[in-house]
Amino acid sequence: MRGILRFGSRTILFYIIAALVFGSVVSYVVVPAPDSPKFQSEKGILDLTQAHVSENPVKLKGEWAFYWQELLSPEDIQNRLARDGNHDRWISIPGSWLGYQLDGQRLNGTGFATFRVVIKLSEQDRNERLALRMPTIFHAYKLWVNGELLAEVGVVGQDKSSVTPHLATKLVFFQPENDRVELVMQVANFHHKRGGITKYIELGGSDVLTVRTNLRIAAEMFTTAGLLVIGVYHLLLFGLRRKDRAPLYFGLFTTLSGIRSLLVGELLLTQLWPSFPWGLQFKIEYLILCSIGYIMTMYFDSIFPNYVSRWFHLVTRIVTGAFCIVVVVTPALLYTKMLMMIGVMVFLHMVYLMVGLVKAAMRRMEGALIFLLVSVVGLVTVVNDFLYYNEWSLIGNTSPLGLLVFTIAQMILLSSRFTRAASNEERIARELQDANNKLTEMNMNLERTVQERTQALSTAHDDLRTSYDRLLHSEEGRKKLLAYITHDLRMPLSSMLGYVEAVQDRVKPERNEQYLKYIRDNTIRVNRMIEELSFLSHLETGQVSYRMEQVHVVDFLRRFYEQYELVVRDAGLDFTLDFRDMEDQRPNVLVVEMDAQRLEQALFNLVSNAMKFTSSSGSVRIALAVEEEDHIRRAIISVQDSGIGIPPEQLEQIFDRNYRYDRPGLEKGIEGSGLGLAICREIVQAHGGTIRAESDGKTGAIFYVSLPCILVL
Questions:
Q1: Is the pLDDT of residue 5 over 60?
Q2: Comparing C-alpha atoms, which of 160, 127, 132 is closest to residue 52?
Q3: Which of 229, 381, 529, 642 is deepest in the core (most CB within 10 A)?
Q4: Cβ-contact 499, 515 below 8 angstroms
Q5: Residue 547: which H helix or E strand, with range?
């Protein structure tokens, strides 16, 4: 590490040049520019007969028909074409209508218009299910595909009062009727300096575009989560040790960068919170952009003191404050016009800091080289973002990745500082102890002097020891935070590693079979935990498909009972199926629309729980009843056990994710992931049903699954 952070005076110029070159290359290699479209539309016609877009999606580029200050439906356009012939106004897409020449005048960014393009598909694609990946379009739009309205973001209107702006990315799926696809879009913008379709629309197979979109979202979630976790950790670190302000500014910088990454790219914030106000979203993004340069200046000054002049501190504080006030008090239509000025301000901040880094490197300041290297990477990605959002760059949103690289490097630098401080404390403590030992061996005639000096040194040693203990407490807090994050998997994996080493070292060869069984059981448990967590996540995000069909509930329960009867009885439990409450009903007409396999999975989870918490010679009972309320008939499936029961005050918590029932006297062998009941609830709710539990906490528990019945004639 010291070899990376410190270098000789003869090679300073070489390392600085290498940092600049390396930063530029890495920034454009790790985030390559998107492929240029091979096909372009001409006069509103895009010929894709030689392409296979269902396997290789294309970005729509070229000339689209342009109807300025008109909101036309596909029928209106067809009527106009039949009456007036071909359209003679075309606009290049992607691109804003800002600056477009129309009747000798240049358009401004506000207004409304209709766009149209006709796509000719190949014979292979006309029978495939296709999709359009819609980017953010300023600031509201409607999309028709072959005359059918498939997407609407915000509310389109002809003036500011009738337009409701909104930003979101979408996947729109459709099935071509023939080899011709007509896209018609109405776009309105009265809230941003640029209006129109400013980003690529992708056309491709539904499966391919879905996978690509999910990968983009996953990458952005990883980057965002990394920035937020690192930022919060350093803010907590500053809370424990306020003397050093570097973690404070670095934590603010990283946390704000993580929040901004939620507001760009795939717009994770609006996907998680669709009703989030767009105006607040824009203000937060621009406030972060305005303040990020000042925060970086303060962080740099805390790492390398006396390298930032007082006048630069004053000027950057005034300019940053002025920009933030303008963003807060003005509408988006005004402050978005300052994007280039904000970019110039951030760029000048970074250039000034890099000049200071060069000076620090010339003076052999520790950490200057790695700071300079990653600053170049961050500078290039941030500059590219400003160029991209002003339509001057083909590379997409790169700043989150550049910031993540910068953040990781700064973590290394700060960790080195903390480690060095702790090492110095230990070294000083050892030196003081050695000095004390030598003083005690001095001449008895100097005993009084030695005692006085020893007392003074002992006091200093105690102070240093106190400081050292505080550092240890801070480090212990950091380790506990990391242990909390990785607890669920680290404990079983660490335990398994210990048994593997025991087998390798032949500590107790006679117990190798037991060790291997424990390793196998723990591996199955970890694998099951991962599978259940993944399955529950898919359930909660609606990614699990259900094959619904009409099923007779009585037949379904009989098949379930016959399938698992031996499993329950082998566990030493009495297993019964009770239809006594159905004697006055017509069981053959009790039909529920269900996915039998998914519902069987939920029911088995309930039976497994009953088996787990019921001792041998106990009983598990499945019963069926019917309830009718508000002219709605419901089938009530109950699973009852004679186990240890559930405390009544915990009944509302047992269906939460990672809930585990812990009761004094409960067998240690009873383990679970805490996900089974949460999975049951998601499956039952997907069937339009409900699930609840009853127990007095002493004599077993009863779980009720209520499912709506359908009318069978």
A1: no
A2: 127
A3: 381
A4: yes
A5: none
